[in-house]
Design brief:
The complex is a heterodimer of chains A (505) and B (244). Chain A has 505 residues and is α+β, with helices and mostly antiparallel strands. The longest helix of chain A has 29 residues. Classes of the chains: A alpha+beta (505), B alpha/beta (244).
Chain lengths: 505, 244
């Protein structure tokens, strides 16, 4: 397969080795691979003068292989393939917004995060650089008809949650279409990383999505380690693995409780709200922060994990497992709960595949997709966590998946704590290499996290691309709402529980 | 039904006795800093967020500090004392040997109004969902914020105060200010977390505004990235004069 440079997760390669066909051949190769079941993990632009270098990262269906290619868009325009491959639509819009490269014939050509391009005087929509860009102002998709009405929600929502705008096209209670417009949380993380790594970078990585500190933090550490050519110790890998699964446990528990709350089943809602805190407290035992802040550093972990802490954690895990099991089992034995979960907000298998969904949302629709198994990294190279999949892709499937994954994570964390490897937890990280491309994938609790770094001749970041699982999955939520009652939106939304800031960057 | 009852009995009564009994913090928690004058006198590396200055006897700005596990500037270590919230911005400046500040009670007229029922409308203006999550957790059965008469509400019209998280992104600025406008006076503002106080990890980024301070009068500053729920609750109980 000479059209793509193939490699494994966590590698760094010379940028010059990445095949650089012309735009036509690039698009042909992209289409050919997608037709053969490959999928796009990341697709981004690097604005350079009046040109834009485009990089596309693809994943093979099996064999754990990643493939990369690049091309150069020399005019201000580039053909869009979204009509044929819906999984590309948001990537192409993002390229247009960040690099000012107009995507021709894009069926859904709208801004993503509402900001100016990385380079001045270029804009995908022909706006001048002095023009103020107003968030949420775009042509929303509209359904016409006498009895059709529109419901607009947000950016500020009812609960303590992040902002986003939702536009429903409804007929009575029934939703014809939901359009989601984000960008309110945009902090400009990728812009700030250009010319990095900076002393602030690690802290910004930990807050890309604050509930996924370990997932994103570990991806950043893997990128730095790949660029520097070091490998963390066994103890560091195990500790990172434990922290990642604790993060998954806390969030899955919270989601299970929130789903119960949204169908009005308060026992599980209130039990899980508290048990989630117990898992967060276990992360605080590791590093002092309930969200894992300050645990990771390139080269390993800042903290170690001694025997006393391990036995304390084992005890806490044991208690949490028994309490969580009691709380969750109530869901399955309560018909009024199951009646609300089953058949609600279904995303069929083929939609999920076409949209390129990841994480629990993809697995609930029967897609066997998990970075821990497909592109193993860190501890998951030695220890395999079984991947669980559902079938129906409804709220019920997304709920069951979370519980099954939580159980696997409990098993994994317990096993790792029992046989924790000896040795140091941190190695020195030398200077990073020049003109290299590093790719790191981790499986956060929402799904696949991808970080790609390109360094320049001075070993600084020429570009650092972050793809949060929510970037793939928001469209899945929109599709889940089709034909549903609008009153089921909170439940469907909770069953995805996607990140606003992880998307907005 | 029986399953639910049995589960309820198994789970037990879980609301913590705080503030009557003290809270136990994890050993590695990074709370109030321990500033040693001798460590501050020498040359130290720059804090990436400008939180530490070593001139004039040294000063740590808890509004900018992210309580890093390894202080990049070198000389700061942290205790597990979680009581960090204050009511004045300058009280976040910690100097060795200078008196420590806690959050002060609200003026008597506001305390009379809000003392038994204080409702907040929360707005995340670029928050990463950590401050939001640890604010949310106060309403769970473990902390049971409702027992203090404090509640987070859906509409600004029902609120007595605005609860801000995040560095205030340009894209959320208008929505934040409009939410504040929609809250009937008198009203208070809480800046929860390093971002809302001074921009946090995103300080001086082009797309953000370094917190809410420049826009609205802040009545309670809760430092941390994110603050521990105990830090948040400590601040709330102190402004309502339920804790001294």
């Amino acid at each position: 397969m000479s059209d793509l440079l193939t490699f494994y997760n966590g590698s760094a390669l010379p940028i010059g080795d990445i095949p650089a066909p012309g735009p036509d051949q690039f698009l042909q190769t992209l289409g050919d691979h997608l037709d053969r079941g490959w999928r796009v993990i990341s697709y981004f632009g690097v604005p350079e003068g009046d040109k834009t270098a485009l990089f596309c990262l693809l994943a093979a269906r099996s064999e754990g292989q990643l493939g990369m290619m690049q091309t150069l868009a020399t005019h201000g325009h580039f053909p869009s393939l979204s009509r044929h491959y819906p999984q590309l639509q948001l990537f192409e819009r993002e390229i247009a917004e960040q690099c000012g490269l107009v995507m021709d014939d894009h069926p859904w050509y709208k801004p993503v995060r509402f900001h100016h391009a990385f380079v001045p005087d270029r804009d995908g929509w022909g706006r001048s650089s002095s023009e103020q860009i107003r968030v949420g102002v775009m042509d929303f998709y509209q359904v016409a008809g006498e009895e059709v009405h529109e419901v607009a929600v947000g950016p500020v929502h009812a609960g303590i949650i992040e902002p986003g705008h939702f536009r429903f096209q409804c007929h009575g209670e029934q939703v014809f279409h939901l359009e989601i417009s984000l960008g309110y949380q945009h902090r400009g993380i990728e812009q700030m990383l250009i010319g990095g790594p900076h002393p602030r970078s690690l802290f910004q990585m930990e807050t890309i999505a604050g509930d996924t500190t370990i997932g994103h933090g570990q991806a950043y550490c893997m990128v730095m380690e790949a660029l520097a050519g070091v490998r963390p110790t066994a103890a560091a890998q195990a500790l990172r693995g434990i922290a990642l699964e604790l993060e998954r446990l806390a969030n899955h528990t919270g989601d299970l409780g929130a789903i119960a709350g949204d169908v009005g089943y308060l026992p599980t809602a209130s039990f899980c709200g508290r048990i989630r805190g117990d898992f967060l407290n276990m992360s605080a035992v590791l590093c002092g922060s309930r969200f894992g802040r300050g645990l990771l550093c390139p080269g390993g972990t800042i903290f170690d994990l001694d025997k006393e802490l391990r036995s304390g954690l084992l005890k806490s895990l044991d208690t949490a497992r028994s309490e969580l099991t009691t709380a969750i089992d109530l869901l399955w034995s309560t018909p009024s709960v199951m009646g609300r979960l089953e058949g609600t907000g279904a995303v069929p298998h083929e939609f999920a595949a076409e949209l390129g969904l990841v994480g629990p949302a993809a697995r609930a629709s029967g897609l066997k997709r998990d970075v821990r198994q497909d592109f193993p990294f860190g501890i998951f190279r030695m220890v395999h966590i079984p991947v669980v999949t559902g079938y129906h892709g409804d709220v019920c499937a997304r709920t069951v998946i979370r519980w099954q994954e939580a159980q696997k994570s409990l098993d994994f964390a317990t096993e790792q704590l029992r046989q924790f490897p000896g040795g140091g937890h941190r190695v020195a990280v030398p200077a990073i290499g020049a003109n290299r491309c590093a790719v790191a994938l981790t499986e956060g609790w929402r799904g696949e996290i991808c970080h790609v770094a390109l360094t320049d001749a001075n070993s600084r970041f020429r570009r650092y691309k972050i793809t949060d699982p929510s970037f793939h999955n928001w469209q899945g939520l929109a599709m889940a709402l089709r034909g549903q009652q609008i009153s089921d939106f909170p439940l469907c939304n909770k069953s995805f529980n996607l990140s606003y800031c992880g998307f907005d960057l | 039904m029986f399953h639910a009852l049995i589960a309820r009995i198994k789970q037990g009564h879980r609301t913590m006795p705080y503030p009557k009994a003290p809270l136990r913090m994890p050993d590695r928690l990074r709370g109030y800093p321990d500033l040693k004058p001798e460590a501050l006198s020498g040359e130290s590396a720059a804090c990436p967020f400008g939180a530490l200055s070593t001139t004039d006897g040294g000063c740590l700005d808890l509004g900018k500090c992210l309580f890093c596990a390894e202080c990049p500037a070198g000389p700061v270590s942290f205790t597990t004392d979680y009581r960090l919230a204050v009511t004045k911005r300058e009280h976040l400046l910690v100097r060795p040997g200078v008196e420590r500040h806690f959050a002060a009670p609200l003026p008597p007229d506001l305390r009379k109004l809000f003392g038994r029922s204080l409702k907040f409308r929360e707005v995340s203006a670029g928050g990463c969902n950590a401050c939001e999550a640890d604010t949310n957790v106060l309403s769970t059965i473990g902390w049971d914020l409702g027992r203090f008469g404090i509640q987070f509400v859906a509409s600004p019209r029902h609120a007595d105060g605005l609860w801000v998280t995040g560095p205030v992104t340009e894209n959320m600025r208008l929505a934040l200010l409009q939410t504040y406008e929609a809250i009937p006076a008198p009203k208070i503002v809480v800046a929860c977390g390093a971002c809302a106080i001074n921009g946090g990890p995103f300080q001086d980024a082009e797309a953000v505004h370094n917190g809410v301070d420049g826009f609205l009068p802040v009545d309670l500053y809760i430092p941390g990235c994110p603050p521990h729920p105990a830090t948040i609750l400590d601040g709330l109980l102190r402004i309502l004069d339920k804790l001294r």
